[in-house]
Design goal:
It is a single chain. The protein is globular. It has a single domain (about 5-205), classed as Rossmann fold (3-Layer(aba) Sandwich), CATH 3.40.50.300. Helix 2 crosses helix 3. Helices cover about 55% and strands about 15% of the residues. By secondary structure, the chain is α/β, with parallel strands linked by helices. Bound molecules: P1-(adenosine-5'-P5-(uridine-5')pentaphosphate and magnesium ion. Its EC number is 2.7.4.14.
């Protein structure tokens, strides 16, 4: 697809930082308000993992269970396909200003993915970085674990996810910070409050 025809916002933050911008009621509000398509790299990977006949299913399961980052070519291809599919679906209508608006949640997690996507697919306009303490994230994930059914929502894997995030994803945030693209939002507060700040940030981008 044509990179000139998309506006991309990356949504990053530690596991459980609460990407409210890409989730639940808030998500659909924001999606409606700005006409975004929301794509979560983690959701796409879990979908592929469960897809019958997928050659990557077992591999994805192993990486996620260990809190490691799935090889970049797999995630990048899933995202690119999902974006292309959305663009095709909405050709001609549905997009504001004739451009596809994407909120890409939980990606890029590693410098090579960031640079690879920048170079071969498209450049993001903004990176929203939700930040809070590991204590807060741990509590939220353990609470979510009661109902999420996610194999990686257990203390041992959560600790590994924190380590992977600090070692591999923080450099991505620093990379975009140096390019002046990062909007950091403290996500310690209640969902509504965080959403309020996130919404203002996105409004500014489009004004
Ligand atoms: N909650 C949220 N905000 C709150 C608030 N303000 N106050 C109180 N509670 C709040 O939130 C987590 C929980 O906290 C929820 O119960 C929520 O209600 C509550 P959520 O919005 O789900 O947080 P999020 O940051 O999205 O947490 P998630 O666990 O989804 O983040 P991860 O980044 O770990 O998960 P993801 O799905 O992106 O990735 C999973 C795995 O996939 C990775 O570990 C990795 O193995 C793999 N992966 C890749 O390899 N490559 C990729 O590019 C992407 C993923
Ligand atoms: Mg997530």
């Amino acid at each position: 697809f044509d990179a000139q025809k998309v506006t991309v916002i990356y949504v990053l933050g530690g596991p459980g930082a609460g990407n409210v911008i890409g989730k639940g009621t808030q998500c659909s509000k924001l999606v409606d308000a700005f006409g975004f398509c929301h794509l979560s790299a983690g959701d796409l990977l879990r979908e592929e993992q469960n897809r019958e006949g997928s050659q990557y299913g077992e591999m994805i399961r192993t990486y996620i269970r260990e809190g490691n980052i799935v090889p970049s070519h797999v995630t990048m291809k899933l995202l690119e396909n999902a974006m292309a599919g959305e663009m095709k679906k909405k050709t001609g209508d549905g997009w504001v200003d004739g451009k596809g608006r994407f909120l890409i949640d939980g990606f890029p997690r590693k410098l090579d993915q960031a640079i690879g996507f920048d170079e071969t697919v498209c450049l993001a306009s903004l990176v929203i970085f939700f930040n809070t303490s590991e204590d807060v994230m741990l509590q939220r994930l353990l609470e979510r674990a009661k109902t999420s059914g996610r194999e990686d929502d257990n203390v041992e894997t959560i600790r590994k996810r924190f380590r992977t995030y600090n070692e591999q994803t923080m450099p991505v945030i620093e990379h975009y910070r140096a390019l002046n693209k990062v909007a950091e939002i403290d996500s310690t507060a209640a969902v509504e409050e965080v959403y309020h700040v996130a919404r203002a940030t996105v409004t500014k981008l489009f004004s």
